[in-house]
Each structure stands twice: as structure tokens, then as C-alpha cells.
Amino acid sequence: MSRIGQNPVSVPKEVKIKIDPGSISLEGPNGKLSLDIPHGIKVEHTDDKLVINRVSNAKQNRANHGTIRSCLSNMVVGVTKGHKKDLEIQGIGFRANIEGKKIVFGLGFSHPVVYQIPEDVKVSLPNPTSVSVEGPDNARVGQEAAKIRALKPVEPYKGKGIRYVGEIVRRKQGKSVSK
């Protein structure tokens, strides 16, 4: 039995749940999310808790049990509090600014890098060297943060580039002069 799948997901009062055969929808103050439930997994709503059970002990059902529970837990957090990823830009002259629905990055290239902000996540710049990505869907927030980070990954010699806040970058020693 999945240890993660055994634990019920507690649901706050402000979250509305709609369970259909094969899918579940959650609606809260931060938005609305839905998830397709695979065959072999049952989700029941009892006393402000979601209980996830599997129909049989087939290998795929055992694999999906904990995964669906984690996805539902992330959805509950997303529609109530929201998910957030913070990135920082390091390097001399590296900066970003918002122009309408786009972010223009100056990342040391011969041209500015333009990033189109998607509709389902909120991207903000608290200052020119930090980026904040927020939204109800954990996977979309992580995907958009990864796309922004991929514009200029951190290089290991000087540590210049875009990184997550708190990310540790292993530094390499440069060339050494022999005499």
C-alpha cells in the first residue's frame, strides 16, 4: 500500500469540489483546477477530506495511487494559497523589465531576449534582477520558471545567469598559469 496514498487530503471550507466519473474539479479563491483520474483509482469526498483508494493491486494502480494523492494535495494548496517560484538574475548589466505582456531581458547577448508572459500564470519583477512566477497550478508555475531559467543558465566559472533563489551552483576553477 502506498504510504503517501493512504493519507487523506484535508480540504478547507472555501474550496468547492466536483467529482465526476474519471475527473475531479476544485475551485477556490485563487482559481479553478481539474484533474483526470486514471482507471483503477477512486476519489471520495467525506467530511472536508479527500480519500484516495485503488480498485485493485495492479502495478499501474499502485503507481498511480500516491501520484494522484500528491497532485490533489498540490491542487488544494494552489486554489487556496497559490504556488510561487522566485528567480534571481546575476551578472554585471543583466536585468529585466516588463513591457506590456512581455518581459525584456538584457542577458549579455548582442540582442535583448523577449519572453511572452502566458495568461494562466502571473510573472512579476520586484526589482530588475529578480523574477517571481505565481499561479494556482504547480506544474505550470514550475514549467514557466524553468523556461525563464533556460534563457541564460548559470555558467560555472563566474556564476552569471538566471537561477532559482537559493540554488547552489558548483563553481569551477578557471585556467591556471604554469611557470
In short:
The protein has 179 residues and is of the alpha+beta class. It is built from three helices and 13 strands.
Keyword list:
elongated, single chain, 2 domains, 179 residues, 22% helix, three-stranded antiparallel sheet, 39% strand, alpha+beta, 3 helices, Outer Surface Protein A, domain 3, four-stranded antiparallel sheet
Task: Provide a descriptive summary of the structure in words.
The structure is a single chain. The chain is an alpha+beta fold and 179 residues long. It has 2 domains: 3-80, Ribosomal protein L6 (Outer Surface Protein A, domain 3), CATH 3.90.930.12; 83-164, Alpha-Beta Complex (Outer Surface Protein A, domain 3). 22% of the residues lie in helices and 39% in strands. The protein contains 3 helices and 13 strands; from the N terminus they run αββββββαββββββαβ. The chain has helices at residues 3-6, 59-80, 138-150, and strands spanning 9-10, 16-20, 23-28, 31-36, 41-46, 49-54, 83-90, 95-99, 102-106, 113-116, 122-127, 130-135, 161-164. The strands form 4 sheets. The protein has a 4-stranded antiparallel beta sheet, covered by helices on one side. The protein has a 3-stranded antiparallel beta sheet with strand order 1-6-5, covered by helices on one side. It has a 3-stranded antiparallel beta sheet with strand order 2-3-4, covered by helices on one side. A hairpin with a 6-residue loop joins strand 9 and strand 10 (113-116). The model has no long low-confidence stretch (mean pLDDT 93).
